[in-house]
Amino acid sequence: SQQGEEDPQALSIQEGENATMNCSYKTSINNLQWYRQNSGRGLVHLILIRSNEREKHSGRLRVTLDTSKKSSSLLITASRAADTASYFCATAAGDNFNKFYFGSGTKLNVKP
Amino acid sequence: NAGVTQTPKFQVLKTGQSMTLQCAQDMNHEYMSWYRQDPGMGLRLIHYSVGAGITDQGEVPNGYNVSRSTTEDFPLRLLSAAPSQTSVYFCASSWGQTQETQYFGPGTRLLVL
Fold first, then answer.
1. CA-CA distance, B93 to B73, in Å (whole number)?
2. If pLDDT is split at 50, 70 and 90, which confidence band does A27 have?
3. Are A105 and B42 an interchain contact pair (Cβ–Cβ within 8 Å)?
4. For B56, which of A3, A42, A98 is closest by C-beta distance?
5. CB A33 to CB B102 under 8 A?
6. What is residue A85's predicted lDDT score, i.e. its pLDDT?
7. Within a 10 A sphere around the Cβ of A64, how many other Cβ atoms?
């Protein structure tokens, strides 16, 4: 399966701290995206990084991609209680970028 | 714009019953897809469509049918519901192909008894 895996499965931090979560995948990709899901809600797109990019920033988010290790990381700086959610990486397969695969997610809890 | 809408929000079915989950988008997106999310897990792709009249299978297509007669609508049909299909179903859409951001609907919670 192409499906990515996030690590850790759960993360609990204090407000103001940084949160780092990792994603690994198995085969070549076209791009990798990170999504957030608040409890009981749909997913919201955070950031997309293409296979020829190594790092991307968006506000308090920083994403890195290492295609040689087939891994990506999402860093949330100066976390807030409102960042409490599950975070998923998703990959579009390199041989069929119409097929999209999600990882199992990291559940982030930011304590006020 | 309403974005991506899904109906119903919640449904209870008995084993063997059939039903259609509705999905509509008003953003003129070419790409639409259906996912299921089981407790504590990520989303798995059921079927997708790259435009009206074109559909294809995803990772877990068995037990589900789709059609795409218009750009706006992408219904998912459960032919004969089974308890293993108890899940939360999400519809998503995007411009062009999956290189673009996917916009998700709020989900349909399905319980099959």
1. 10
2. confident
3. yes
4. A98
5. yes
6. 97
7. 16
Strands (DSSP E) along chain A, which ranges? 5-7, 10-14, 19-24, 29-37, 43-50, 55-58, 61-66, 71-76, 85-93, 100-102, 106-111
- Is residue B98 within 8 Å of A92, Cβ to Cβ? yes
pLDDT in tens, B64-108: 999 999 999 999 999 999 999 999 999 999 986 656 788 999 999
Give pLDDT tens digits for A39-93.
Answer: 888 899 999 998 899 999 999 999 999 999 999 999 999 999 999 999 999 987 7
Reduce the DSSP state of residue B89 to 3 states and report it: strand
**Cβ separation B102–A48 shorter than 8 A:** no
Distance CA B96, CA B31 (A): 6
- CA distances to A39, A45, B2, B8, B29 from B106, rounded to whole Å, are 11, 13, 11, 10, 17
Measured between beta carbons, which residues in chain B are less than 8 angstroms from residue A100?
33, 45, 48, 98, 102
